[in-house]
Amino acid sequence: MRRVRFALGAAVGAVLLLTTGCALTSDDDAASVTPESSAATAPTDMSTDVHTPVPTQAPAPATTPTRDPLADLAESIEIDEGPVLGSDISWPQCPPGMGIPEKRSHGGPGPVPEAKYVILGLTNGPGFYPNPCLADQLADAKAADRMVAAYAVASYPEQRFLDQYGADGPYDGATAAGALANTGYQQARFNVDLMKKTGLRTPIVWIDVEPVPDFEWTDDLNANAAVVAGIARGYEDAGYRIGVYSTPALWAGVVGNLELGIPEWRAAGQTSADEALSRCGDDWIIQGGQAVLGQWVEADRDMNLTCPGISVDLANWFHRY
Predict the structure, then answer these.
(1) Who has the most CB within 10 Å: 10, 143, 160, 253?
(2) pTM assigned to the model
């Protein structure tokens, strides 16, 4: 398969061609995949390369550090050399009945006591809808002395958001792809503002790319890729490192052969810790980035383990208050 690399940072929008070699069952954020074969293939309509719009504006100066200022201090703390256990939570773990009608929370269980970190979901499903109990979940993480990071679901914009934000961003809003990318950009900035309001600090934001029930992606992979490219640019312009949460097949089903080359958080679904760790291998590359985390679901909880080598510098990936 040919993949398209979307160059980020100062060269955002440049497209390089590289040669390289899914199943939704639940509404829960970052836990909605079932096990898949490493031989899973992309949709049959992907005979052409996916392209993203080129920004018309230079990247904005970073406004937040891309690495935790306490990173060097954190590196002096003794840590396990093996995988480090953590969790991720979002709107499904809020008290029952919170959130938008399509995504009501049901009070799901929080992290297990042994979890050393928690990755907090910023959205109530789709973009522009905030996790209704994010502030409380952050407070709980602080009280438990857990390191934190953040993720946000990427979604295809509703028409009202496209009308509102299509011309507001670093892309040419007069084109369909540029308007989609600008709206994706504003999805990211919405979440950046939310993190500032709640005091959530993180060295990275994980972009969750998968089908979103009730807020489906289109069959146009180029249009979907434009949204994701805009989201990536939005977080980077705000100074955050970015990564991708997905599986190879889910990613291909949404954005085709788009390749960002950014770190990867790889889902294994209702499996096991061993299977989640196996996702750190080269057979499970999503879009050309470093394997950082493997996730599985156990006892209705989203569980995560760091991939080999990640535990030597956890401050690259999590913030400790």
Answers:
(1) 253
(2) 0.86
